[in-house]
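Dear colleague,

Thank you for sharing your sequence with our group. We've completed the structure prediction you requested, and as agreed, I am returning the results in plain text so they can be pasted directly into your records. Please verify that the sequence below matches your submission; if there's any discrepancy, let me know and we will rerun it promptly.
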Amino acid sequence: MKNRRIIIGDIHGHYDALITLLEAIAPGKDDMVYFLGDLIDRGPKSSQVVEFVRKSPYQCILGNHEHMMIQALSNTGNKHNKHEVWQGWYHSGGLETVESYRDTGIMPYDDLEWMQSLPLYLDLGDIWLVHAGINPKLPIKMQASQEYCWIRDQFHSMEKPYFSDKLIIVGHTITFTFDDVEPGELVSGEGWLDIDTSAYHPRSGWLTGLDVDNNIIYQVNVKNNQTRKVPLEELVKPYKARRKLMKK
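Please find the predicted structure tokens below.
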């Protein structure tokens, strides 16, 4: 088997599931692993996830939850806005992240500095990795964290691929919020593939890794530690325009 590129979706603090998933995938020394961001929040072990990824040989891009943490804990902005930003992050899963750092006794300064250095996207040639998506009406040079970390419907409803020669792989939007998509299934649209199967949500619990070179899905469920290895075509569903809105 040739060298593999493994793409891992939103982990949201589920460190034990991440380790189980990587054991199932068993990356070799020449395989590459890429994380789509949202390492933190909502799950119980965000600090452990960040430490593992930061010290690993693998690459990671910035997610909207890292973006919120950076804004909440940085020294920029006025006090009134800072309070609003802090509250927004705290109630979007930041509480669990704060508690995970309190449990470890490690202040997140090094982790914050690392998060601030994360790229907004990675171009792998035939594959383009970004957390949330891109604005189909803007050129790349005019897009920033608001698009790359936060966009949803405008990206998903593209009528033609943004790139003619690249597949965009994203997380951010829970796949079962699309019509006719079951927990654990993936969603594909015009030039994009969404692999965020929502490890943190009680309706799902699936954490997904994609071997993009062999079209194989690896998954572990945080609720019962069930693992499975499935051909991509058995789990992917086509995009449908309506989507059930959920806060993410």
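Summary note from our side: The chain has a mean pLDDT of 93.

Kind regards,
the structure core
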